[in-house]
Design a protein that fits this description.
The protein is an alpha/beta fold and 279 residues long. The chain has two domains: 3-97 and 169-276, Metal-dependent hydrolases (TIM Barrel); 99-158, Orthogonal Bundle (DNA polymerase, domain 1), CATH 1.10.150.650. It is 39% helix and 15% strand. The protein is built from ten helices and seven strands. It has helices at 18-27, 44-54, 86-96, 99-112, 118-125, 134-143, 150-158, 173-182, 200-212, 227-240; strands spanning 3-4, 32-35, 57-68, 72-79, 186-189, 217-222, 243-247. The protein has a seven-stranded mixed β-sheet with strand order 1-2-3-4-5-6-7. The chain starts with a strand and ends in a 32-residue tail after the last strand. The model has no long low-confidence stretch (mean pLDDT 98). Bound molecules: adenosine monophosphate and manganese (II) ion (3 copies). The site of one manganese (II) ion has 4 residues, from loops.
């Protein structure tokens, strides 16, 4: 089965409208797709309709921004959530609410670097104004010729420690996992190789606290993972008895390292998270 359980549409910081994302996944041979927009559920109905018309299995999802320990941002994916659940919807509305002010601070910081009018510029790339984020600023800086590509923008300006970075308070780990469970979903630690700020002990603590909150799965195969990192987190899944997920984290053609459905296979001895979701 070609399952891709991590993807983004223009409802957050992807480039394709939800229906177009679903069509692209289908064209790439995906049998089971989850749309997991950041902190937002608005694309799920359109995506589900399109998947149904194509006869493709679809899982409603979300990727929640979390602040963990010493201000480290981590991402928790929720799979199989009920988009109509009020607790999840209210929690996500709170997580989204600081983005506009953060964007204003980011624009002011970039202004100090001599890069002008980035808020208006980023807004042109954010179809959903409530979800304006770093990717939209990055795309504007590329489009206006300041930087050659999105990765370079992050390297020079938007990654933590760079002059355009603005720290932000997201959800707590316990709240994020709790909302996902309240909505009937399965919580997944997204792309664990990306949390370079966490020490080895910090990463263990993340998995401890995640399991204690009721989290059940880890992304073993992720767009950002090298084969070595897949092996490393396959070992974590075995040792901790976690279900294994697989997702490209596709955002945009020409920007995302892995396209929809083009991920490595999960190691065969692991239990895929989709078995827990009825597939
Ligand atoms: P935000 O939620 O506004 O902090 O934006 C986070 C998003 O920025 C991630 O979900 C990615 O889509 C994107 N991103 C983060 N780091 C990088 C990077 N180094 N290169 C390209 N995109 C990145
Ligand atoms: Mn993103
Ligand atoms: Mn993420
Ligand atoms: Mn993602």
């Amino acid at each position: 089965m070609n399952a891709d359980l991590h993807s983004h549409s223009s409802i957050s910081d992807g480039c394709l409208e939800p229906a177009a994302l679903v069509r692209r996944a289908h064209a790439h041979g995906v049998d089971l797709l989850a749309l997991t927009d950041h902190d937002e559920l608005d694309g799920l109905a359109e995506a589900a309709r399109e998947a149904e018309s194509l006869g493709m299995n679809f899982i409603p999802g979300v990727e929640i921004s979390v602040s963990f320990l010493d201000d480290t941002t981590i991402h928790i994916v929720g799979l199989g959530i009920d988009p109509a659940n009020a607790e999840l919807a209210q929690g996500l509305a709170r997580v989204r609410s600081g983005r506009e002010e953060r964007a204003q601070h980011m624009a002011a910081a970039l202004e100090k670097c001599g890069i002008h009018d980035t808020l208006q510029g980023a807004r042109r790339f954010a179809r959903n104004p409530a979800m304006i984020g770093r990717a939209h600023f990055a795309r504007y800086l590329v489009a206006s010729g300041v930087m050659p590509d999105v990765n370079t923008v992050f390297e020079h300006y938007l990654a933590r420690g760079k002059p355009g970075f603005v720290s932000h308070q997201w959800a707590s780990l316990e709240d994020a996992v709790g909302w996902i469970r309240a909505a009937g979903g399965v919580a997944v630690v997204a792309h664990p190789s990306r949390y370079h700020r966490l020490s080895t002990a910090g990463l263990e603590r993340l998995f401890d606290d995640f399991a204690a909150a009721g989290g059940e799965a880890v992304e073993v195969v992720a767009g950002a993972h090298t084969p070595e990192e897949m092996k490393r987190f396959a070992t974590v899944a075995r040792r901790r008895g976690l279900l294994a997920s697989r997702g490209s984290d596709f955002h945009c053609e020409g920007e995302s390292p892995v396209d929809l459905g083009r991920c490595h296979e999960l190691p065969p001895d692991l239990t895929p998270v989709w078995t827990r979701l009825g597939y």
